Amino acid sequence: MNRVLVVDDEPSIVTLLQYNLEQAGFEVITAADGFQGKQLAETMSPDIIVLDLMLPKMDGIEVCKQLRQQKIMTPILMLTAKDDEFDKILGLELGADDYMIKPFSPREVIARVKAILRRIQLQVGKNDVESTEHLQISIGNLLLSPEKYEAHYKNELLELTLKEYELLLYLAQNKNRVLTRDQLLSAVWNYEFAGDTRIVDVHISHLREKIEEDTKKPVYIKTVRGLGYKLEEPKGE
Q: What global pTM score does this model have?
């Protein structure tokens, strides 16, 4: 049974989400403020966090930021009543994996939660039937191990969010191929952010910070002006 941490200060929303998630087969733990939510994320090992943006004591942005700084990479689905582009981009920049605007359907929240967990479980499950050697992808100093959902750069484990990893893996699986922002949105985000290609740019920027020696002169993830991005083997590595 997967454990979901719901962090929201509106009792009606917590009750609604808890009931529907439990009916869908999830174990649910709840917190009414950001500080308590962060503590539960640290101690209760949830499989996924449904995190409101506007919270007392510590807002969702700060919770997300601090968890990622502590290398806690639990997937985060962020909720907000504000249809605000700045908050949306900032939340994703700080490590949220997905984003939903209130009001929302409980069924849609459950669908998003299941989709995130399913992607993780499918990748981990591949380890039971395929060898590590077969699945690993090596590009320069990058080594991706899809069966473990891990990526290493210069033999150091990269701390990646779910979406960052999926984007890097998709680029690696299509090495030297130019991929448009719309193609990347479709492959990595499915329907969630249809038409909002800035989400891709934000995550590309994050990846470059983690694998490029000079983000202004990238040697792995290249921008193809007017088209999109491609990942290629760096010269000399």
A: 0.63
